[in-house]
Amino acid sequence: MSKEKVVLAYSGGLDTSVCVKWLQTEKNLDVICVCGNVGQEETDLEKKRQKALSLGVLDCKVLDLRDEFSDEYLTHAIAANSMYENKYPLLSALSRPLLAAKLVEVAHEYGATYVAHGCTGKGNDQVRFEAGVLALDPDLKVIAPVREWDLKCRPDEVAYAHEHGIPVPEGANDNPYSIDDNLWGRAIECGHMEDPWNEPLDDAWTMTKSPENTPDTPTYVEIGFEAGKPVSIDGEQMKLSELIIKLNKIAGDNGFGRLDLVEDRLVGLKSRECYEVPAALTLLQAHKALEDLTVEGDVLRAKFALEQQWATTVYNGKWFSPLKAALDAFMDETQKFVTGTVRLKFFKGNLTIVGRKSPYSLYDYGLATYDRDTTFDEKSAAGFIYLDTLSLKTWSKVQGPGSGIA
User: What does the subunit section of this Swiss-Prot or TrEMBL entry state (predicted)?
Assistant: First the structure.
């Protein structure tokens, strides 16, 4: 009798390699692995595939998702100026729904009953994977081995791996950090940084140089946008995934893109997190600057509130939800005329917007200038102020400070 099948989100690391054996031995399931490249640092996916096959899986699907991640996910994040709690550009929350979608696709392909992931019960990613899977196919069942097994810490996992013949790299217990990365940046937690008073050590940062070690002269960059999407650097057209890679290098070499913050996790606890997001922060700041020039003021003010809702919705794993779809429709409408060029200045860990232009600019020099040739009729301001303050004056006479009531 054939076994039931499970599709596992496989990174090739210790956790998911142990998950393979645990699913095989404890759940008696045939395992199919899915390894998606969303731009993470370790891109030797063929080695990971061979490692999975050596563990006896039915198959290991290696998928290059960098362009799909950029064009279908990061473009929405840029349109929404996504900053969770107004301080951090979503990172893992943007890649998890794409990976969840691929788990569902492969489960359908192989007739699998289950999908599985290697997330802990304390983090956000368990929710993102499972919400994504269940939104796309509510009949699939989800297994989370790390929430079920009795392996309490990394040394326990290493011992389990040795016991079951799973290859373990030398020094597997030595890495103090938990890292997650993709094209949009890099998340660093655990180790020395679990005390929020401790300054991150130099070895935590790999994408960005210390500002002290950056060039002594500014670096200028021009980013071109079409309908809200970044399309060029210094006039050179390129696809978004390549543009992000190039901008990560430029901004990182100038020491820009480090974040050290405490965020509120979905599961109810506060977590100290460090992020390296040089391209993400750069593109969001540039995009906002171009929106200031091209999007009408009332729309901008309404958009700001909805941006926070967009970021929270995605952070909480609701990428595939009616609310997210409705928010995207609003964001898409606002991007029609966000076309133009933004000039940036990097220097010693800082980024400054120093220029912006657009064929759809709503900035009217004649109205804005204080020179003699202004087209703004200042005399009309008196009537505006009279009407704008009419309600305030009425209140003051009857109920407010000017009412004379003791």
Answer: Homotetramer.
- Are 146 and 19 a contacting pair, CB within 8 Å? yes
Interior CA angle at 31 toward 25 and 34, to 5°? 140
User: Annotated binding site for L-citrulline, which residues?
Assistant: 88, 124, 128, 178, 263, 275
Q: Which residues are annotated as a binding site for L-aspartate?
A: 120, 124-125
Out of 137, 154, 178, 328, which one is annotated catalytic?
178
- Per the annotation, the verdict on 15 as an active-site residue is yes
- Which residue out of 49, 125, 258, 358 is catalytically annotated? 125
Report yes or no: 278 and 256 within 8 Å, Cβ to Cβ. yes
Strands 229-233 and 219-226, by their bridges, are: antiparallel
Measured CA to CA, the distance from residue 199 to residue 41 in angstroms comes to 24
Structure tokens at 239: 């696809």
Residues in the chain, total: 406
Q: Is 361 noted as a catalytic residue in this protein? A: no
Run means of pLDDT, 10 residues per run, the chain, 406 residues: 91 89 95 94 79 94 96 98 95 96 98 94 90 97 92 82 80 68 91 89 93 96 98 98 97 97 91 95 98 97 97 97 98 98 98 98 80 79 92 91 76
Q: Is this model's pTM higher than 0.85 or not?
A: yes
Residue numbers belonging to the annotated binding site for ATP: 9-17, 118
Sheet order of strands, 178-182 included: 178-182, 185-189, 270-276, 258-264
